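Posting for a labmate who doesn't have an account.
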Amino acid sequence: MSYGTNPFALGGWNNAQNPASINTNENRFYSNLPIQVLQASRPFNGQQIKGPRPSFSTYRFMHPGAPFVPTTAPVDTLNSVVVDAYAQPCFFVSTTTQGYGSPAIGGPQPASTTTSMTSSTQVGQIAFIEWFRHPVAQLANIFQRQLISTIIQVRSASTVVLTVRGRTYQWVRNPGEAQMYFFDAGFNPPELMAIASRENSGTVMLNVSPTAPQQGLLEVIVFSSALLLSGRTLD
């Protein structure tokens, strides 16, 4: 199997609300799977992780209409609102498709699809994604406009790597689990920075360590988890 795409999509983080997600039976491993949030597991080098630590902050990807449009359908992370533990909006992610025959990297596309991410505390968009044949993205003050495959580098069916300000971070997912873990790989052992999991309500929960925002990683965690859980291929 080739891992030059989105391994977490291949592993079954499919999204029924996203027509670009993978929906074949063999790739629906996690589809509608009831999740006991943050189950005890060994996601990395045999370390035991037992749920969120008391100091971790909680964020959720919600449907844009929630709570006014109750639904248990899996949230589309590329069309969502990210709220904090007090249900206050922090980030807004929106995807639109316009026109036909737009030029694109790698060849013409039938339409031009873009995703933008804004923050409740900043003016203007902080991230922008262009869904060309080989999609490109940028994240303000972190990643200049480049191929997503160079931002989120696939290492295996369960691991992707991001380099932020010269430091290496990893998203790791254990086969058979419906959650993934964000580590600072610069430490030995690596430091757990965030955990992402789908809930029975259809939302995606992020538990984020207090050091992540201090190090300017909250936007990176939200941005990268939105991509990995979108069901889209990223190369």
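Reply:
Got it, the structure tokens are right above this. The first strand starts at residue 57 and ends at 62.
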